Amino acid sequence: MPKDRFDLVIAANRLPVDRVTQDDGSVEWRRSPGGLVTAMESVMRGRDGAWIGWSGDPGEAPEPFREDDMQLHPVPLSADEVSDYYEGFSNGSLWPLYHDVIVQPTFKRRWRAAYERINRRFAEAAAELAAQGGTVWVQDYQLQEMPAMLRELRPDLRIGWFNHIPFPPVELFMQLPARESLLHGLLGADFLGFQRKADAYNFLNACRQLLAASVKGDVVRLADGHATRAAAVPISIDAQAMADLANTPQVKARAAEIREQLGDPEHLMLGVDRLDYTKGIRHRLKAVGELYQEGTLDPSTTKFIQVATPSRERLEAYQHIRSQVERTVGQINGDHSPIGAPAVTYLHRSFPREEMAALFLAADVMLVTPLRDGMNLVAKEYIAAHDGTGALVLSEFTGAASELKQAYLTNPHDISALKQSIMNAIQAPPDVLARRMRAMRRQVMTHDVQRWAEDFLTNLAAAPERPR
Ligand code: ADQ
After folding, report:
1. What's the mean per-residue pLDDT of the chain?
2. Residues 6+ away with beta carbon under 8 Å from 349
3. Fewer CB atoms near the end CB (10 Å): N or C, the chain?
4. Ligand 1 mean position to 84 CA, how many Å?
5. Cα torsion at 87, 90, 94, 95 (round to 10°)?
6. Top mutation candidate among 238, 272, 346, 455 for ligand 1, by most atoms within 8 Å of CB
């Protein structure tokens, strides 16, 4: 095999970098924010691997290049393909369907055709780059047909796929027009990783019901004999890096400064989410607004910061959630804020890691209340940033809830229950909070993203058997 082939190839919709044009016109690549990138960064460190993905700009793809010890291989997408494959089928059909139909999914045959075409393009790119007998790790819901396409081109490869988002119950999944091709696409892999056992179960059940495939335990076998194992491998964060960052004098000083800027509140609540309808931001604001309204919380001594990162802004559902959130924040502040000291601080932009760590450290109550979320890394980052202080209010509908049992677990659809959970967290005695936070911290520090990647790759190497 030529030297330009790699033992480990990651395939993800996006490359882990963004193209930035400087004032002088020069172009540079900068590591991009987001759950997946945060998670995969440490996996690639020190390995001679390649990453294939879209650069983020429509049109011709830049030439392959090296960055941070990694070969980056851009896959081109035209403007129409961005709109049909990415915004259309991935984020207009699959995303809402896989998140409990919180928003009605839209199905269009043109979107579906583009999805298949782009999955084939990724499969061809991976087939070119992977070394003989190498490993290809495919990421997420945008690339569900790629594993089978790749196996056809390169039967010598070990192929794994990890789903960062939930896998829906078969009653919902069966709405999908391309449902059988997607299942067959995934069954080209040797190992499929999911965030929760329930997600793996949903997938196995869909194979049983929709393909009449042979499913024994967690293994699906097709007529040609190829077997695929599906199991939970919950993703995590670089926990030590967050703990270390939160422990630096600069971040500690900045955390104190944030509280001071807010008028040294008695309680500071924090929410950090991509501005997405799955994240439950409206429900959270409703609960907080009512607590101010009733006088249960005093808006001059209890403040709330909501960071809502811009996301998928060309899609109508996202424009809608943004205007709802912004209107509600305006209403709460209009009704309750003292002059010059807003009850709710709303930040619609990205921040450097240091500022995120300072926000986590400054907050004594973290509100993570999605209506549905594959995992939610923010919950884990908050835990890693705190050493025995703080409180986490966590939706039962996140993957994180399966691991962080000592959080104030809540049903965000039930506004009364959500308000009660917030108050329980705010009013809990420090020794109770410390006990809960210590237990969760042990879990996060010992189950970090490095361990997740090792677990995934060990499972992939052993599949369809379980690793010893
Ligand atoms: P996301 O839906 O993006 O990820 P999440 O898991 O919370 O959700 O990850 C978001 C990441 O972005 C966190 O690391 C957070 O700190 C960072 N971030 C958020 N807002 C930011 C801001 N304004 N500035 C800078 N950084 C910001 C998807 C799935 C999740 C799953 C992850 C990983 O939807 O369920 O946990 O992938 O698998």
Report:
1. 95
2. 309, 310
3. C
4. 24
5. -70
6. 272
